[in-house]
Amino acid sequence: MTPSLASFVLLGVLGCADETAPPDAPVPEPPAAVPAVDVAEAPRTDADLVQEAVRSYQGSLRACYNALLRRDPDAGGRIEVSWELLDGRAQNLAILSDGIGDPTMATCLTTKIEAWEFPDTVSGDVTWPFVFRPAAATP
Predict the structure, then answer these.
(1) Contact by Cβ (8 Å): 74, 101
(2) 112, 60 in Cβ contact below 8 A?
(3) How far is it, in rounded angstroms, from Cα 109 to Cα 118?
(4) Closest CA to 130 of 139, 116, 120, 121
(5) Which of 5, 60, 82, 105 has the most CB within a 10 Å radius?
(6) DSSP labels for 54-89?
(7) Across the chain, how many H-helices and E-strands are there?
(8) pTM value?
């Protein structure tokens, strides 16, 4: 079996000899360095902006889940919500799948999401899965 180029480069960096290569085989050059990208200068996409906003508001959904846990301490699951972003607001919300099956929880989620503000420059359809798990039981 002949090692791949990556194996040669790795072995060369580690200073190990490849016993399967002939003694007069040329050692491949390591790949050229890839220029670093300054993350601060990288443009942010609409998806990045939506993700940033959703993450900043996820704590507001905790109240919905805590209310559910008071009714059912073992409740948990995944709820997938879709909405349309227009003028910085979530509109036309729909529950696509509900692994929890509690209408009060679903209504609470959509009410909270409708109150979120998104950048005005972002518009379009969003689908987001929210996963809720009860805290691990402490001994």
Answers:
(1) no
(2) yes
(3) 16
(4) 116
(5) 105
(6) HHHHGGGGHHHHHHHHHH-TT--EEEEEEEEEETTE
(7) 4, 3
(8) 0.65
3-class secondary structure, 109: helix
At residue 111's C-alpha, the angle toward residues 116 and 104, to 5°, is 145
Higher pLDDT, 76 or 29: 76
List b or e across 47-75, with b for residues whose CB sees 16 or more CB atoms inside 10 angstroms.
Answer: eeebeebbeebeeebeebbeebbeeeeeb
Give the pLDDT of residue 134.
87
Please name the residue that has the structure tokens 């979120």: 116
Structure tokens at 26: 């040329």
Percentage of the chain exceeding pLDDT 90: 61
Distance of CA 66 to the CA centre of its chain: 23
Residue-level pLDDT at 111: 97
pLDDT of residue 32: 59
Q: Residue 55 — very low, low, confident or very high, per pLDDT cuts 50/70/90?
A: very high
Query: Which helix (H) or strand (E) element contains residue 139?
Result: none
| CA–CA distance, 21 with 1 (Å, rounded to integer) | 10
For 80, other C-beta atoms within 10 Å of its C-beta total 15
